[in-house]
Automatic annotation (TrEMBL):
It catalyses: L-histidinol phosphate + 2-oxoglutarate = 3-(imidazol-4-yl)-2-oxopropyl phosphate + L-glutamate. This is Histidinol-phosphate aminotransferase. CDD domains: AAT_like. Homodimer. The modification N6-(pyridoxal phosphate)lysine is found at residue 226.
Amino acid sequence: MSKEHWRRNVSLLKPYIPGIAIEDVKRKLGLEEITRLASNENPFGPSPKAVTAMRLALLDSQLYPESSCRALREKLASLFELKPEQFLIGNGADNVISLIGTAYINPGDEIIYCTPTFPAYRTITLLMGGTPIEIPVTKNQTYDLDRILAAITAQTKLIFICNPNNPTGTIVENGLLESFLQRIPPHVIAVLDEAYVEFIEQPGYHTGVDFVKKNYPVIFVRTFSKLYGLAGTRVGYCAANCDLMKPILAVREPFAVNRIAAAGAFSALDDEDYKFTILQENKREMEKLSKELRALGYDVTESHANFLFVDIKGDAVELTNTLMREGVLIRPCIAWGLPQHARITIGTAEQNERLLTALRKIIVPKERERIEKWEKFRLDLR
């Protein structure tokens, strides 16, 4: 069928390309073991409490789930000291972002965000007929709030702020975000994508929860995919004051989250010991991996997430393909227009060592070749 039958804005979209599946790499290269450090998954998996809850929920899988995920909303409300009706549970954070865009974006509305960042903001903006206003991040790889403020017009509807940002892992300095929210005009809503917020370690750092409590025009989005290790079950949520939530609730599918996923998310919130262990492991391994990558000559941006943004000072796609043949998967940032950068998930100690071993195996021959070429060049000059 011809594209003339398509909805007009669909042809503007660039399909989101997720990290390559482990199963595909095994089949393509005939490898038995794959280490995937490309999709920012929790390498330790979900909490045992979440696994037990999901197994029990399977016994009732013939039943439709409670439509609104009431129990999970009530638990989140208690955790954050908000009201259950301020929460919406969706099929992962990307689904929640799509719902927000569907609820708010009209043709001609301007939607502002910085780049590079999570591509879902651009996708839903174009799909709904809005106009994406893309502003480069600062030289420190953080969201440029001053330039965002300067870009606001009467047509601005939403501002997406990914904090910590994906793929850079950077955060807005504490205090700057609240100052920014105080200065945006009343017709603008700020959407804070906080998929990695639990990894921020700064004491007293203000997040979307704090801003909603202060009644700023903020919708914050979070997920169970990263810290809680439930990426495969697809559970995300957003929260705001009740007036901001009304149109989002109106466009939500009636059974957006399956019974098994909701049970896992509910019980994951109960396992504080497991959460603490994951955060400690991530911190320890991030420090070690950052140090080793810098020793190999790469530039590593300070991260507040569970991944590193790495300037490999070469062709990131070539390096990714070479590592793939060694059974290690990382994410090249070419889709963000950054051919020399890669995003590398923090894995277990064993996974990270496997990455470093593969890198050393790749780099040493290349360095030897570079030295040989230089020596030959010097001899030719004599």
